[in-house]
């Protein structure tokens, strides 16, 4: 369980966000939804300790931690695969950098490759496969971090619309099959609606949550579900106003 | 051979043809400008004389390249790891290149003697700089998103260096090495000009004094061939090492 209290980050004296709170129960899928450039990535970088926070506290499973850098796995909009390694070697990176047990990891990664439709591509180089397959390999790598908390930074936004739809279901596996706790940032309303248990609408400058939606619909969800469409209308309405009341 | 290769060969043939024609028609004495045919003839027929000198110069160049790599790679990595080091050393590095090698050559001969050491040192000074600078630039060009990924994986610096930074910088390392090997001959030959008992530079000075101009040109031809050979070797090595598309 993740608890963030009063988190603040300033840039040139201006707050990107301040007094930012977040409560993420275990195995829940939360989505931060906001326009591009509202500071979502800065929030992730602050949470992971890539840039130091200026104020606030982060608690993970009841323990106060300086940041989540060594507690979470991270998946980015770019697949960030290394072109000089095969898909398998890329997926095994989290183990290799930690000098972990490679044999066991290889077996596990092999199973994940099969599960995510990458069987038979383990020895391919990233430039030899499609964008969707690369992103799935990045998903395997994310799982190989072997951490309970996963941060997703617009993980599918570089994919084309058709491929993206297919991969949204794969992201769901993170929650259903691998019981991860997930925090995702995105600007894609549909993606948020399909995947999230909770959606937080963000206003820019400084970034703040101005509205929260909880969806208790079972997953996988259909695009044309009346409740989903109703929520979507509400969200779009609020986003249009941009949190300005 | 591909099209560009063919047109390059054609251009060389044309230039040599004009050269040969001008010398033959203009009856230019061979000690002023020998025709290409005579140069080639000398280079082949005098191979027995030239070869030992070429071997010495080749050894100087290869040792220079080896030393340059052995020092440039650790230095570039150290400067990349510790930016303070880069800021401190950068002025010295630039200064080392601002001093003309020609000016240093006589001093180096005094300090290191007429033997191979002063020439190797000269080659080293010249090659070392492009390799260091290119490699450092290559290491620094690494995409910060990848760095973040490795940071979150808890990867120690040396692991990140081996898995991410080094392969990332390889294309630029090879670019620096190419520049290095193509200028390496300069260092060795200047060293030999100033004071040596063997080497292609020594041969050139000797033949020049005796107005054996064809032999001077033949030595230059051998030097050029050695430079081209090294250049090609680096190209092949690069192709074998970098098998991926970024």
Can you put this structure into words, describing what you see?
The complex is a heterodimer of chains A (245) and B (246). With 245 residues, chain A is an alpha/beta fold. Chain A has 2 domains: 1-71 and 154-245, P-loop containing nucleotide triphosphate hydrolases (Rossmann fold, 3-Layer(aba) Sandwich), CATH 3.40.50; 78-146, no CATH class. Chain A is 35% helix and 26% strand. Chain A contains 8 helices and 10 strands. A 6-stranded mixed beta sheet of chain A has the order 6-7-8-3-9-10, with helices on both faces. A 4-stranded antiparallel beta sheet of chain A has the order 2-1-4-5, with helices on one face. In chain A, helix 6 links the parallel strand 7 (149-153) and strand 8. In chain A, helix 4 (102-115) packs across helix 5 and helix 7 crosses helix 8 (226-241). The longest helix of chain B is centred in the last third of the chain and has 38 residues, at 157-194. Chain B has a single domain, classed as Orthogonal Bundle (MetI-like fold). With 246 residues, chain B is mostly helical. The mean pLDDT of chain B is 91. Chain B is built from 10 helices and no strands. Chain B is globular. The chains are: A alpha/beta (245), B mainly alpha (246). At the A-B interface, strand 6 and helix 3 of A face helix 7 and helix 8 of B.
């Amino acid at each position: 369980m993740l608890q963030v209290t009063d988190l603040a980050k300033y840039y040139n004296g201006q707050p990107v966000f301040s007094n930012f709170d977040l409560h993420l129960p275990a195995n829940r899928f939360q989505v931060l939804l906001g326009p591009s450039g509202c500071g979502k990535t800065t929030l992730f970088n602050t949470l992971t300790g890539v840039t130091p926070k200026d104020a606030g506290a982060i608690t993970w499973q009841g323990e106060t931690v300086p940041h989540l850098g060594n507690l979470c796995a991270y998946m980015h909009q770019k697949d960030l695969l290394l072109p000089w390694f095969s898909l398998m070697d890329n997926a095994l990176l989290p183990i290799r950098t930690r000098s972990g047990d490679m044999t066991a990891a290889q077996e596990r990664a092999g199973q994940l490759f099969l599960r995510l439709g990458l069987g038979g591509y383990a020895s391919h180089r990233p430039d030899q496969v499609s964008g969707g397959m690369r992103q799935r390999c990045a998903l395997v790598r994310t799982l190989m971090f072997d951490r309970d908390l996963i941060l997703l930074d617009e993980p599918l936004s570089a994919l084309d619309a058709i491929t993206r739809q297919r991969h949204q279901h794969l992201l769901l596996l993170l929650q259903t099959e691998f019981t991860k706790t997930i925090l995702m940032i995105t600007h894609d309303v549909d993606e948020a609606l399909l995947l999230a248990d909770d959606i937080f609408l963000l206003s820019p400058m400084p970034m703040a949550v101005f509205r929260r939606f909880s969806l208790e619909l079972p997953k996988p969800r259909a695009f044309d579900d009346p409740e989903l469409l109703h929520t979507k209308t509400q969200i779009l309405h609020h986003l249009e106003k941009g949190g300005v009341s | 051979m591909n099209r560009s290769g063919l047109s390059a060969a054609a251009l060389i043939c044309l230039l040599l043809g004009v050269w040969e024609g001008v010398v033959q028609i203009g009856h230019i004495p061979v000690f002023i400008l020998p025709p290409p045919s005579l140069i080639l003839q000398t280079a082949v027929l005098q191979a027995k004389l030239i070869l030992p000198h070429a071997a010495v110069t080749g050894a100087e160049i290869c040792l220079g390249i080896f030393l340059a790599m052995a020092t440039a790679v650790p230095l570039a990595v150290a400067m990349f790891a510790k930016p303070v080091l880069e800021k401190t050393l950068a002025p010295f590095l630039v200064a080392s290149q601002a001093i003309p090698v020609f000016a240093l050559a006589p001093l180096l001969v005094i300090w290191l003697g007429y033997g191979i050491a002063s020439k190797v040192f000269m080659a080293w000074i010249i090659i070392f700089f492009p390799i260091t600078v290119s490699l450092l630039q290559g290491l620094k060009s690494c995409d910060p998103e990848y760095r973040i990924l490795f940071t979150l994986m808890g990867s120690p610096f040396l692991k990140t260096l081996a898995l991410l930074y080094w392969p990332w910088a390889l294309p630029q390392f090879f670019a620096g090495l190419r520049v290095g090997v193509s200028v390496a001959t300069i260092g060795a030959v200047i060293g030999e000009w100033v004071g040596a008992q063997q080497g292609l530079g020594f041969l050139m000075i000797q033949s020049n004094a005796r107005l054996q101009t064809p032999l001077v040109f033949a030595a230059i031809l051998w030097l050029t061939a050695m430079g081209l050979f090294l250049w090609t070797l680096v190209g092949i090595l690069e192709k074998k090492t970098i098998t991926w598309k970024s």
